[in-house]
Each structure stands twice: as structure tokens, then as C-alpha cells.
Design a protein that fits this description.
inorganic pyrophosphatase (n-terminal core); 22% strand; 308 residues; homodimer; 11 helices; alpha/beta; 6-stranded parallel β-sheet
């Protein structure tokens, strides 16, 4: 792969926003005359697969390592720990994101982040700014990303802007948000093909703070009990990860998309931080976190605040 | 001052872009219904004074310290070393910038940076995006910032976009870019009222890399000889700064805006980095750097690369 062709990708353990925003951003770049290609850093999850099948399109190519000097555009992430392994030697041209920011680069680049629910919401505005057409397929991708990241507008990360843009996109995509969105989210809760090791890695993110390393993994479910009947297998898989990656904390959250709660398993030397952060008592390494559904807004900041 | 009213400011040792972009951004926020006020972190330079007099407007209020929890918007900078002293305890809501990026925040914010010559160029696009009117005064401020930062389009930091937007702004401002711009830059070269200590601090920026601290100061001149006749006084002032701030390197650049060169004085334990970075030999702590005018593009990256 030429290092001059810009690769566009989102975070490891890609979710629907990461995959869709990579494709949508690469298309914008190509429309503006910059040669770009969407790629991915990990396996496609069931929810994303639903969108790809719906649109009858291929998943972006899987990339495991970048050449030194490779031109890249990051979407839906900015932290090196969540990016390609040798991101430090790549040439980051642009970042389009909606997360907390922990980034450093020695020359000016294009960096655009907004505190909205989804990268695709920012991309919608960039299409508008550059007067680039949003086709039916592009609209469906953007809409799927917004529905996924905002849990069909129910997450506290969802802003009025996300919802308004999603409604415009639904018209272009010719779908009913509620029907399409419910089918999409339901597809993401299907864990039947996965081993416990795979389930905890469907959507896990690594964070660092003051030398401490921790992971927060999250899955969506419509049935917490069916997830937790495999608790002992998850715990074994989590303990393996903790040992392998030298983690101080691992929090695995199963988010009930019907009732908007999350039940967590926490392990590691710093597992008690969850008690402090949420005022709960861990029962056999688990706790129910009422009204907590967003890793970005309700999990990560609380953990960062209370970790010492 | 209420911590709820958002303060908008640029870097310490403010230049024309910093002051104008603070006012222009505060106006945009107010137009969009967010209560904001432009302030400044240091003295107004002669060039900026020229614009304020031309428009018959007051300089933003000088602010020395922020209250904890103060809502702020940063323009024209992002690094804590160049910002208000207790920026770590402020609530940064937005950043609009065009510099290298070294920034960290634990919750998502609005961050918009583009690799263009001037913050005002980015602000122009934000006005357009939000469909906010660019009045004659606002246009003059934006135009002055672009002319200042790009040395009337001669700096390598100047992009086609800066120039195209400056031309549109000149029409709204009802000025001739060449005439107004030359007068503006000339006003900035007037150092007659300053002591050597003040001259080296007109536009100096502090940087850090791997525990090393260095400053790069820059002034514009149309007459290098008249600046360098005071060399020994500058050296004394620079050595005082080095001692006071524990610096490893101080580079003072006098940029000849007619011939597009910079003559530098470098002092400190790491002063030899300049020889390595530019392939020059220091002669009594000075060197002429041919075709070097931009701190951001031609000084800072070279120093960062060669400092070990």
C-alpha cells in the first residue's frame, strides 16, 4: 500500500461509528480531490455487519501495521493507545473526533472535534461546509453511526444536534429511525457466535493515567441475565487480559439498552475504584450502575476522577 | 468577573492574531447566544495598537489570573505553557487554533484547528458555517490578523486559503491589502519605545520537550542593523531570562520582513542546536538564517527535531 495514499481509520475494536465514519470521511476526501482509503484496525461487530449487509457493501480492508511515514486520517479516536500500533511513526494529517483529547503533534494539522454524540454528526457538518453531496448510502452510514453511538438517542451523550441531523439523514436514507434503529441495535446484541474472550474484546478501550493502565469494555444487550450466566468465563478472560497487559483495572460493562442501566464486572488491583466512583458495593466483582450507559460520559470520567 | 461568562483569550505576549481572534471569537459566541468576553494575557504590541487605533476600539481587558472553574475559550494557542497561569483549573470549552497540538482534556470539547496561516482564517469559516454576519470592523480585524501572521502573504505558513479569504475580507473592510498591510507591518517594527528586556518579550513563546525548556522570541524589523547594534543589551536580557526560567535554550529572532530572512541570537547550554538545525556556524552567538521567517514552520520544528 502506498504511503502517499491516505488511510482513514477509527479506533481498535471498531464499532459502527468507527467503521462508517472511516468510509464517510474517505469519501469526503476523495470528493475533495485527496486520495484516501478507509481501512479498519479490527474485526467487524454484529451491529456494523448489519449495516454493511443492509447496504450490500464490503467492510474496509483490515490493516494490522502501518509503514513509517504513512499518511493517515484518524476518525472517532485520537489517543495513541487506541490507534494503530506504530501510529507514532505515521504522518497524521487530520483528526475528526468527538472524544476527550489526549494528543500531541509537532506541526499544525487539521483537528476537528465537537462534544456531540457521534463522529458522523461532525462529518455531516463537514459535508455541508464543503457542499459535498450526501447520497442515500452515505446518509444511511451516518445515520447508523448516530443511532449506534447514541443508543437511538437515549444515551446522555446524545445532543439536540445529533438528533436533528439524524432526522435529516433518515429522510435521505428513506428509513424510519425507530424501526431501522431498533433492528440495528438488536443485531448488535447478538453474542451467540462469540467466545467469552471475544465478547470482552468486541468494544474494549485501553486508557492510561499517571502510569496506571486500565481497560473499559462494553457490550449492548437486551437481556442482562443471559449475559451474566457466563460470568465466570468472562472473569477468567478478564484476568488473562489483566495479566497479559499488566492492567491495574478492567471494567466490563454490559449495557441494557432497554432499561438504560449497565451491569459491570470489575477486576484488578484498582477494582474498588468503581465503588468510590458510583457509591455502590461490589458483590462478587459485579455491580449494577443505574442509568449509566455511556462509557465516554459516565464511565471514563468517573474512573479518571477516582483513580489514584 | 463571573466564572460563568466565558473568557476568550489567546497566548501570552499577544500578537495581532491573538488579540483580533479573541475579539472576533467572542463576537461569534455572543451572536450565537453564548455570553462571552475577549480578554488578553499581556501587553498590546505596536502592530496591534495600529489596528485598535485604526478601528478606534479599546484593547480587551488584561487578565492576570483565572478563578478556578472559569469557563474559557482558547484561540491561537493550546499549550498550557503559553496560556493563563492556572489554566489547569479552568474549564476549557473550546479551542480554535492553527498551531501544533499538545493538549489533553478529560471530557470531549469543541476543538478546531487547521494548518492555515492564521486563526482568523479558521474563524472566517466558522462565521460562514453559522451564517453570522462579518461586519466591516470584524472583517478589518480578521484581515489584520491574516496580514500579520503571514507577513502580507510572504510567510511559508500562508496558504491559498488565507490569501483568498484575506481578499474577500479586504473588500468588506474597504481597504487595499498592500497599502494597509504594509502600514500595519511597519507599525509593528517600531521598537523605539522598548527596553531590550521588553523587546525580547514582545513575542516570546515557551516550549517544553522531554524535560527541556526553551524559548523562541521573534520581532519583525525592516532594518536588521539597527536592531543588532543593541546586541550586547539583548544578550544580557536573554541571559537573565535563562537564569530566571531555567531555560536550556533561548533563541531570539529578528525577522527582516523586506528580505525574508531572520538573524538570530542564541544562548543557553543547548545553543549549538541551531548550528545543527540550520547548517550554520554561530558567530559570537549570532547567525543569519536565510529564507527563515516562520517560528511555527521553520523554527520550532527544526529545534524540536534537533534537540536531544
Amino acid at each position: 500500500m502506498s504511503i502517499n495514499k491516505t488511510l482513514v481509520f477509527g479506533h481498535k475494536n471498531p464499532d459502527t461509528d468507527t467503521i462508517m465514519s472511516s468510509i464517510v470521511m474517505a469519501n469526503l476526501e476523495n470528493q475533495l480531490g485527496n486520495s484516501a482509503k478507509a481501512v479498519r484496525l479490527g474485526n467487524i461487530n454484529k451491529e456494523t455487519e448489519y449495516v454493511l449487509n443492509y447496504l450490500n457493501i464490503e467492510a474496509p480492508e483490515l490493516v494490522s501495521a502501518l509503514e513509517d511515514g504513512q499518511n493517515v486520517i484518524l476518525v472517532d479516536h485520537n489517543e495513541a493507545t487506541q490507534s494503530a500500533d506504530n501510529i507514532a511513526n505515521a504522518n497524521v494529517q487530520k483528526v475528526v473526533d468527538h472524544h476527550a483529547l489526549n494528543f500531541s503533534v509537532s506541526t499544525p494539522i487539521y483537528y476537528r472535534a465537537e462534544p456531540v454524540g457521534c463522529t458522523a454528526t461532525v462529518l455531516y457538518k463537514m459535508y455541508k461546509e464543503h457542499d459535498v453531496e450526501i447520497t442515500k448510502n452515505i446518509a444511511t452510514m451516518m445515520l447508523s453511526a448516530i443511532i449506534s453511538d447514541t443508543l437511538l438517542f437515549k444515551s446522555p451523550t446524545c445532543t439536540a444536534e445529533d438528533k436533528a441531523i439524524a432526522e435529516k439523514l433518515a429522510k435521505i436514507a428513506e428509513v424510519d429511525c425507530g424501526i431501522y434503529g431498533t433492528d440495528l441495535l438488536k443485531a448488535g446484541t447478538d453474542l451467540s457466535d462469540y467466545t467469552p474472550e471475544q465478547i470482552i474484546n468486541i468494544d474494549s478501550k485501553l486508557f492510561e493515567k499517571d502510569g496506571k493502565k486500565f481497560k473499559i469494555a462494553q457490550i449492548n444487550t437486551a437481556d442482562l441475565d443471559s449475559v451474566f450466566k457466563n460470568k465466570v468465563y468472562f472473569e477468567a478472560a478478564i484476568n488473562d487480559e489483566i495479566k497479559k497487559d499488566n492492567l491495574d483495572l478492567y471494567m466490563f460493562a454490559a449495557t441494557d439498552i432497554i432499561n438504560s442501566n449497565s451491569k459491570v464486572i470489575t477486576l484488578g488491583n484498582d477494582s474498588k475504584v468503581v465503588e468510590k466512583a458510583y457509591g455502590v458495593t461490589l458483590d462478587d466483582n459485579t455491580a449494577l450502575l443505574e442509568n449509566v450507559v455511556s462509557r465516554k460520559k459516565q464511565m471514563l470520567p468517573k474512573i479518571l476522577e477516582n483513580l489514584d
